[in-house]
Inverse folding.
C-alpha cells in the first residue's frame, strides 16, 4: 500500500480550519490502516495520539527531499498559498491531491 502524506501549512491566513479539516481525513485513513503521515510547519503543534511531523521550511525542494525520505507516494495538500508551479513540480514526483476552495493559482 502506498504511503500517504497530508501537508497543511499553518499561517495567519489559513488559521486552524484547514488543519482540522485534514485532521479528520488523517484520522479516517489511519483508522482504515493506511500508512499515513501528517505534517505541518509548526513545531509547537502537539496533539495527543497523533504523530504530527513538523517541517519548519517553505522551501519546496527541502519538502520534496523530506517526503522522498519517508517514501511518500501520495501527497494531500490543503494550502491557500501554493502556486501552480509548485503543484506541477510536486505532481512529477507524487500523486497530488489538492484541497482548497479558492483555487487562486490553479
Amino acid at each position: 500500500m502506498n504511503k500517504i502524506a497530508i501537508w497543511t501549512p499553518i499561517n495567519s491566513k489559513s488559521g486552524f480550519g484547514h488543519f482540522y479539516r485534514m485532521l479528520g481525513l488523517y484520522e479516517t485513513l489511519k483508522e482504515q490502516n493506511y500508512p499515513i503521515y501528517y505534517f505541518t510547519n509548526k513545531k509547537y503543534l502537539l496533539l495527543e495520539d497523533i504523530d504530527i511531523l513538523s517541517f519548519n521550511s517553505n522551501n519546496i525542494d527541502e519538502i520534496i527531499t523530506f517526503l522522498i525520505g519517508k517514501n511518500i507516494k501520495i501527497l494531500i495538500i490543503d494550502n491557500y498559498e501554493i502556486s501552480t508551479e509548485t503543484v506541477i513540480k510536486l505532481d512529477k514526483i507524487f500523486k497530488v491531491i489538492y484541497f482548497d476552495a479558492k483555487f487562486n493559482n490553479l
In short: The chain has a mean pLDDT of 81.
